[in-house]
Amino acid sequence: xxxxxxxxxxxxxxxxxELGAIDLPDVETDDKGAGFYADDLEPAGFxxxxxxxxxxxxxxxxxxxxxxxxxxxxxxxxxxxxVDKVTKKVWEKQQELFSGQSLAVDVARKSKKRVSASHxxxxxxxxxxxxxxxxxxxxxxxxDRAVMNAVITLNVAGGRDVVTAGAVYKxxxxxxxxxxxxxxxxxxxxxxxxxxxxxxxxxxxxxxxGDGKVINLKGYLxxxxxxxxxxxxxxxxxxxxxxxxxxxxxxxxxxGQIARPSLKALAVPINMNADNVALKSxxxxxxxxxxRAKSNGKVPKTILWETVYKNMGVPxxxxxxxxxxxxxxxxxxxxxxxxxxxxxxxxGYEETTKGRTAYSVQIQPVYI
Length: 368
Prior knowledge:
4-stranded mixed beta sheet, 4-stranded antiparallel beta sheet, alpha+beta
């Protein structure tokens, strides 16, 4: 509700009270009150008795007592994007992981020293014991991955251990200063809840640690709990208090497999709905892997459109609706690549076709 609407509503209420036309306890309101707090209205001359009557009627917001005050610093200049094989495996092999399987991952070490051919692989699994009684309602999506990376960015690069859905949106869409829609906040919060209840174990053998010690990284994808805090004088009921650094970041950082695109590069001027957040997340990871791989010819510079569509959850088929959806995804993807070309993040790109169908796009990266 707007400030002017709040003022109008309250003025009308005051007039009805003066006329004795309503009995306050019988007033029906929504659970958000009228958008005012008692300490906001006291300086304006509202008596404590009247404030109590408004509160009893549900027309006054109640400020949470004892909520810790949090001061948020500026947003970081760069985002953090893990580009390691373990994170990739968690998203690509969810069916196997949620069924209790442990998956081996042959990971390149940060050190340039060669690992013997008989070395043990890193093993990733989900801590199924900690999933007892927790129902996984859906598979994790690329949108969830973008949200996790935004939390990591705020926590590690931004130094924040308290995160809100609004702050996550600022990382997902740094191109705008507008507050996100209620629908977007709901999508982000649902994603955060899914990440908070997905526990992972990363078993790192001594071959990778350098000192022969075995390490088991354990934790939830977003290790946090919901908390009520006060931010800039306002009470936020659904903030997240992180109690440790996310484990997938800790592993990727240990292996030196982190991309750090600037928020300017991520400020793509497009409508940033959930689908476009996911699309930009996927392209960011692919392109920045290329930008980091100047001497690594193993990182492909070509992105298949079919791979993009699959990652976006678009099934194969030839219906008109599917063709239109693929067309929208491709158009938006090219807009993102055009922006990165104009920003100097890539030299350009070249599309290839098979027959009359767009088949792939080859990126010409500017190496880091």
